[in-house]
Amino acid sequence: MQSAAVATEVEQDNPLIAGLERLPVRPTALVIFGATGDLAHRKLLPALYNLAHEGALPERFEMVGVARRDQEHNEFRDMAKESIERFSRRRPDESVLKGLIDELRYVPGEFDDDDVYSHLRRVLNEFDQRAGQELNHVFYLSTAPQFFPMIAGKLGAAGLNRARDAETRIVIEKPFGYDLASARQLNAQVLEVFDESQVFRIDHYLGKETVQNLMALRFSNALFEPVWNRNFIDYVQITAAEDLGIGGRAGYYEGAGALRDLVQNHMMQLLALLTMEPPTSFDADRVRDEKLKVLEAIVPPAVSEVPSMAVRAQYGPGTVGGKRVVGYHDEEGVATDSRTETYAALRLHVSNWRWAGVPFYLRTGKQLARKITEIAVTLKPVPHLAFQSQGSVGVQPNQIILTVQPDEGVSVSLGAKIPGPTMRIRPVNMEFRYGTSFMSESPEAYERLILDAMRGDATLFTRGDEIVALWGIIDPILTAWHEDTTTPVPQYAAGTAGPSEADALLEGNAKWRRL
Amino acid sequence: MSEDIWAEQNTDPDAIEAALREMLRSRHAADQTLAPARVLNLIVVVDRAWKGEISNRLARVGRYHASRTILCAVEDGRDTLDATAVMSYRDTAGGGIGVMHESVEIDMGPEHLSGLETIVDPVVISELPTVLWCPHGHDEAIAALQGITDVILLDSDDFADADEGLARAQEEQKSAYVVDLAWLRTTPWRERLAASFDPPARRPSLAAIEGFTIRHQATSTASALLLAAWLASRLQWDTRPLVSANGAGLHGRAYTSSSRYIDIRLEAAAQDVPGLAGVTVTCDGYSLSLDRALGGLRAKESIAGHGKHSWLVLGASRGEGGILGEGVRQALLRDPTYGPALEVARGFNAHAG
């Protein structure tokens, strides 16, 4: 089987690709398991349409939806058309949409039914026949997580895990595991059937332009790298705040909670990209090697240490955007005695030469004051403030703020003189916004990730050892919270910045940024 | 879309620049969620009689608007400057950052062109790259603005004959990076040809190409030449001038390093829109045709012993508005394959006509 590295090497031999912005993607059949689900409806199908619109899909592209719902091809096509028309980021071009939809196929059945895989095999063979060549296969698992090992196993049993003259890849949605043990088990089950080079574990945050820009900001600007260490950085805050509750997702959320939902994956990925050493190249494994190294430098807490480095909380009733909202316990489907956290805050340390002693604060929550995802890097104060006698109460340490959403960009706070006869200083912001600095809008993360998976570029996907390292940091916290069934879970009023208990995590001069 | 407008007759560059600065200050003071786009300047020099047509084209570029567009409308007999500055923005009622774009129209006379730099330079945003587009010629303007121009936007299909357009592009390359709309019309075709020969099993066919035919709208000969030249330059063929094929296009040969020849044909095709209509590549026992179709390109493949296949390669047509928008966007990028292709294209066309 050809590895991703070998495939890239062969690609460079194609003299026609030089200078092209859009590199070719080999002829591919994409199979979406869970094709009638919410993710396919809102994200995957619209992303595929946008790739088709831009001419970015492979020249031979086929797609099959697999799901339990018993329906015909045409019904699936109608559903897909509706999804695209509703959720595409651009108004669909009728002829492109028709071209994409007309060729869609649907395979109904339970995921544990061998007939589904025989049926799928026949459809894929038909595609190969029609194309006169063996197409690459990408199996996209967009199902409930309990089906991941089953589908991987069944694909292997049906011999669909590899092909003679083409490449086969499997894309696995989050959550990859429920805790450290289940993640290890799932890794083992998937790797019994597929090689690591075939496995693409999605964390869609990595497909966001601003997240990728973290690497550009750090490694293509001489301005930042010299101060990107313990000598200059006082502390770092990573915030992923939402101003919505759990909506109708109580069934999922009660079993997950904020720590699993956002911290273990998205926020820890941000932390890894922020703190990793420069990779020697932007090759998938070189980048992931560096992320792994830094994740392994985060010493997981002992269970007994968790209360001093992590805070959980639940939202109570409150007002968000001028509207009264109910507390978590009053949400439909939530147990009245639920201890599932809707807010989590952690203090972590990266134990290596670059970061020793720098606290990293992570916080996420639902029903908070506003929706924002950002990284705030606070530099140490200047060693001597010459303007103290002039009443410079406004002098603040410099901060570098990387906003992931909603207004993607970077701002740097600087001290500047207030116009006037005395030397008074206050912070001002130097801002870079995607909307003002680039003409094109950022593509949806799923467009980039689907294309990368079809091309076999795993840079923006999570490797198996990375998953284990991520869960290894979070697992003791989950254990501690699971074992503590008596301490009351702190409550915060909906529409606020979270519980006051989170303040106790902060060291030295640190304070939580206003949401 | 909302607009703030300033206008003054018999004005000067300082007044225009001051007006822009004041519009920016007052709009930002009124709404701090608005911020000015800061990507690139676009200077457009046009005949005043055709100003409306060019303005309409610029309005159709989709999201690829320059941050500050300075349209210089040249009118015979005029000896004063009249200017209008417009700051346009969308209200940000839904939250988030709103982006402001600035456009300036300056009516001027032909005698202003030799000193155009002194008029335009104070008005451009100095830290941004500056793109110059002169769709109606105005060579004097190009010369005058050489010192502040980073990128020249032109359309080598838009000249009286292809050779003149290609020669102009080559000449302009000496002083600035050139974005050629004729080249951008070939982009989907280049991408698809690259993809078609990308599978390892198909890659050897590149070395076995026996001929190719490019079908194009009659006014898009430069695009067709550039596509042929791209293939020749990428595959390192030794090329010869193409000759007129009895009024039915251009015909000629290129040679591989082993002196094997490749038959090249450029044929005019009936097509409503500018650009290419189709391309056919033939190799030993293999042929591939790509033709413009609804929803993308219709591909037809024939493999000896394996029959014929046909399929639709999906992709929306960008239209001429989209091509111009792409031209603006490409001003921020650099394509290392255009220069070599342009050189070969000029060689193809050396004796044609």
Please explain how this structure is put together.
The complex is a heterodimer of chains A (515) and B (353). In chain A, helix 7 links the parallel strand 5 and strand 6. Chain A has helices spanning 4-11, 38-53, 73-87, 94-101, 114-131, 148-157, 180-191, 209-219, 250-275, 284-296, 306-309, 434-437, 445-455, 464-483; strands at 28-33, 61-67, 105-108, 136-141, 168-172, 199-201, 233-241, 310-316, 318-320, 323-325, 343-349, 359-365, 372-379, 399-405, 409-417, 425-433, 491-493. Chain A contains 14 helices and 17 strands. The model of chain A is unreliable at 1-12 (pLDDT under 50). Chain A folds into two domains: 4-173, Rossmann fold, CATH 3.40.50; 207-499, 2-Layer Sandwich (Dihydrodipicolinate Reductase, domain 2), CATH 3.30.360. Chain B is an alpha/beta fold and 353 residues long. Chain B has two domains: 2-149; 187-348, Dihydrodipicolinate Reductase, domain 2 (2-Layer Sandwich), CATH 3.30.360. Chain B has helices spanning 13-30, 51-59, 116-120, 139-144, 162-172, 181-184, 187-196, 221-234, 319-330, 338-348, and strands at residues 2-8, 34-36, 41-47, 68-74, 82-89, 98-108, 130-133, 151-154, 177-180, 209-216, 238-239, 243-244, 250-255, 261-268, 276-283, 286-293, 296-303, 307-314. In chain B, helix 5 links the parallel strand 8 (151-154) and strand 9 (177-180). Chain B is elongated and about 70 Å long. At the A-B interface, helix 4 and helix 12 of A face helix 7, strand 17 and strand 18 of B.
Brief rundown of the structure:
The complex is a heterodimer of chains A (515) and B (353). In chain A, 34% of the residues lie in helices and 20% in strands.
Domain count of chain B, please report it.
2
Proportion of residues in extended strands of chain B: 25-35%
- Which chain pair shows the most residues in contact? A-B, 48 and 53 residues
CATH topology of the largest domain in chain B: Dihydrodipicolinate Reductase, domain 2
Which shape of chain A, going by the Cα principal axes?
Answer: globular
> N-to-C SSE series of chain B?
EHEEHEEEHEHEHEHHEHEEEEEEEEHH
Radius of gyration of chain B: 23 Å
Major sheet details of chain B: 9 strands, mixed
Tell me the name of the CATH class of the largest domain in chain B.
Alpha Beta
CATH architecture of the largest domain in chain B: 2-Layer Sandwich
Query: Major sheet of chain A, described briefly?
Result: 9 strands, mixed
Q: Please list the strands of the largest sheet of chain A in the order they lie side by side.
A: 16-15-14-13-7-12-11-8-17
Tally of domains of chain A = 2
* Morphology of chain B: elongated
CATH superfamily of the largest domain in chain B: Dihydrodipicolinate Reductase, domain 2
Count of helix runs of chain B: 10
